[in-house]
Design brief:
The chain has 4 helices and no strands. α2 packs across α4. It has 90 residues and is mostly helical. The mean pLDDT is 82. It has 2 domains: 42 residues; 39 residues, no CATH class.
Amino acid sequence: MARDPQILMRAVAVIALIAAALATAIQFDRERAPERSVDIRSTDDPLRAELERCRKITPEHLATDTACQAAWTENRRRFFAPSSDGREEE
């Protein structure tokens, strides 16, 4: 019976260590997240640059922004259009 409090304390300590490790991993992932979007902006594709701009505007402005509507239409056309050689477009 004397060992039950020891086992309980060890279990609490292990759970606390796991929670601390998870919190650290989540924080580390959040700090690295902006680096992922840099790759998208570094391309020379003007359509990608326009789509990046369109992602940042509000839905109300998107409804009246004809440039964004055209960019999304072109993006859908590129995505759904079959390529001529059977491979995906690059």
